[in-house]
TrEMBL record:
Superkingdom of origin: Eukaryota
Keyword Nucleotide-binding among UniProt keywords: yes
PANTHER family with a match to the protein in the record: ALPHA KINASE/ELONGATION FACTOR 2 KINASE, HEAT SHOCK 70 KDA PROTEIN 12A
Keyword Cell membrane: no
The name this protein goes by in its record: HSPA12A
Any Pfam family the entry gives: HSP70
Record keywords: ATP-binding, Nucleotide-binding
Organism: Mytilus coruscus (Sea mussel)
Length: 599
């Protein structure tokens, strides 16, 4: 195992943060421990009641001054049970907020995040800047990690010795990834001490390195660690929010390449809870639920928590017994509030709904027949299966016989059995603790970022530019500059969707020449776009999105031949760009900025 690259940089510790949609965790490893077989990676443990867990719910509570009050189980307890009688109407509570990064179409560092338990009146809803929420949580992990490393007896180390790794879904666009970097900056993590790890890649790296704990089914061929060069496998990271799918080919003992661009969607485990919530709304009505949320948040949360527990113990075998049932404990407030608002007992009301015979209420017992309970998984299962079917049919996937299933939701046999039934010719590999593969793999990626040797572009990327007007260009794009007819809004393509990008700091793509518009310009901003279209003509074409800009400082006055050559490298998990001023050969690196009102 080579991990010299990091030693060269003087980082003897890698600390990783798996910032999950539903659960988050952190881990670290010292260089000496990394070289052991298997590496000794220390994950934090959290206490919830009497159990220890390796990840905590991604929930955070902020004080009225917007400083972090508590995180994880603590935040949930403080918010829903409020044992300390905090004036919660002045506090800010956010749960499962990573979803917002892909839901928000115009994400910038100015974007606000609304509190999770929302006031009916939109004007009364409290908001915080999203980058401050993410930044505070990363800062919390950072402090916890530094404390844990110090407490492990390492008094010699300084923050400069740490390489930080934060995980992000592979299907995120550049904008969401950049947003994570901006958040880390808020948490005072230095840019050159931070790497982003793509979640399915991290899981692959972990399963290549650690054969123990990997279930083999039938023949050893399916052990990821034992796969020989040329073998390909699909990685399905079925987390809480995202379904992140990658396809990897083994290229050496310690290297992998991506053979198809990452795909997937937002069909993780939380959608099962969402389906249950929709069902509750049908049974109780939004008015009853809102009233409970407001007057007794503890009772509200208790039912949702109970559902989460039942969900994680619901098995494929339960499906075979449609007459069997799942019993949830219904806090008395649910039945009392229902009766007070609807003037009817809940038990009687249920008999009048479409759920008659499949749902029964008896005092504090809320019984749901197995076949109805199973339908809560439908949305997630149908989408995941459809996506995998589409993927497996592609030519690049020919000969792929192995599916590596990771992420917390893969602990569900409802999911894994459905996959086994659907994809009979594909062998499945599930690590023992599928929810931790990403976190541990992220630490490994921090030591060996070169493990992934090439990636496949998920989008077509380009710069918005102006060029001489040509026949066929729309009149609406015509502008006159210095008496010459020009065409504006041209999409100048740098990367095409599906293009193979060799990984490496020096792996820049072909240069494109541009001329700054004004003679006295001291800096230049290129508008950067993405699209799923292979050959867009104009940046205004359907599907083109401005995802940010590339900012460069120019030599004072930039005289002589004023053109400059721009090249980019998007093979890593960060967009890197470089311009060369043609006349002086002077080079400067660009800074990728999220769109904001000021640029
Ligand atoms: N045995 C189980 N059965 C069903 N679901 C499970 C089980 N164990 C965990 N889950 C679900 O897995 C999800 C958490 O998985 P994980 O920790 O990988 O997600 P995450 O990292 O929070 O999300 P993402 O990676 O999408 O940001 C939760 O929705 C949880 O309910
Ligand atoms: Mg995850």
């Amino acid at each position: 195992m080579q991990s010299d690259k990091l030693v060269e940089h003087g980082k003897f510790i890698v600390a990783a943060i798996d910032f999950g949609t539903t659960y988050s965790g952190y881990a670290y490893c010292k260089h000496a421990d990394y070289n052991k077989n298997p590496p000794i990676i220390k994950c934090n443990t959290w206490i919830e009641g009497e159990t220890l867990t390796s990840k905590a719910p991604t929930c955070v509570l902020f004080k009225p001054d917007q400083k972090l009050h508590s995180f994880g189980h603590e935040a949930i307890k403080n918010y829903y049970d409020n044992p300390d009688k905090l004036q919660l109407n002045k506090y800010y509570y956010f749960e499962y907020f990573k979803m917002m990064l892909y839901e928000q179409k115009d994400l910038t560092t100015e974007t606000y995040l609304e509190e999770s338990i929302k006031e009916e009146d939109v004007k009364k809803r409290k908001k915080m800047k999203a980058v401050d929420v993410f930044g505070a949580v990363i800062g919390y992990f950072r402090d916890q990690l530094l404390g844990a490393i110090k407490n492990s007896g390492e008094h010699w180390f300084t923050e400069k010795d740490v390489m930080w790794v934060i995980t992000v879904p592979a299907i995120w666009d550049l904008r969401a990834k950049q947003f994570m970097r901006e958040s880390a900056k808020k948490a005072e993590i230095a840019h050159d001490q931070l790497m982003l790890a793509l979640e399915p890649e991290a899981a692959s790296i972990h399963c290549r390195r650690v054969p123990v704990g990997v279930q083999t089914e039938g023949d050893g061929r399916k052990i990821i660690a034992a796969m020989a060069p040329g073998a390909k496998f699909i990685v399905l990271d079925q987390g809480g929010g995202t379904t992140d799918i990658a396809v990897h080919e083994v290229t050496g003992v310690n290297t992998l390449k991506e053979v198809h661009q990452a795909c997937g969607g937002h069909w993780g485990g939380i959608t099962v809870n969402k389906q249950f919530y929709n069902f509750l709304e049908e049974i109780f009505g939004k008015d009853v639920i809102n009233s409970i949320k407001e007057t007794n948040p503890s009772a509200f949360y208790s039912l949702l928590r109970n559902f989460e527990n039942k969900k994680t113990s619901f098995k494929k075998e339960d499906e075979g017994e449609p007459e069997g049932q799942v019993t949830l404990r219904l806090p008395v407030d649910w039945t009392d509030t229902f009766k007070a608002i609807k003037s009817l007992s809940l038990a009687e009301a249920v008999e009048k709904t479409n759920f008659k015979g499949r749902v029964k209420v008896n005092k504090d017992k809320f019984r749901i027949k197995n076949d109805l309970f199973r339908t809560f998984y439908d949305y997630s299962l149908e989408n995941v299966i459809r996506e995998l079917e589409k993927l497996i049919a592609k030519k690049e996937l020919k000969g792929v016989k192995t599916l590596l299933v990771v992420g917390g939701h893969s602990a569900s046999t409802v999911l894994t059995e459905a996959l086994k039934t659907k994809f009979k010719n594909i062998g499945m590999v599930i690590p023992k603790d599928p929810g931790l593969a990403v976190l541990k793999g992220a630490v490994m990626f921090g030591f060996e970022p070169g493990t992934i040797t090439s990636r496949v572009a998920r989008f077509t990327y380009g710069i918005g530019t102006t060029r001489p007007f040509r026949e066929g260009d729309p009149e609406s794009k015509k502008i006159i500059v210095d008496g010459v007819e020009k065409c504006k809004d041209v999409f100048d393509k740098h990367i095409e969707i599906g293009q193979v990008l060799e990984v490496g700091e020096d792996k820049y793509l072909e240069e494109h020449e541009y001329v700054p518009l004004y003679k006295d310009q001291t800096s230049v901003n290129f508008n950067f776009y993405d699209t799923l279209n292979k050959s867009p003509k104009y940046v205004t074409d359907d599907g083109c999105r401005r995802i940010g800009s590339l900012h460069f400082q120019l030599t004072d006055g930039m005289t002589g031949k004023r053109s400059m050559a721009l090249k980019i490298n998007n093979s890593g998990t960060e967009l890197v760009s470089l311009i060369t001023e043609i006349a002086t050969k002077k080079q400067s690196t660009g800074y990728f900025r999220l769109p904001s009102e000021s640029n």
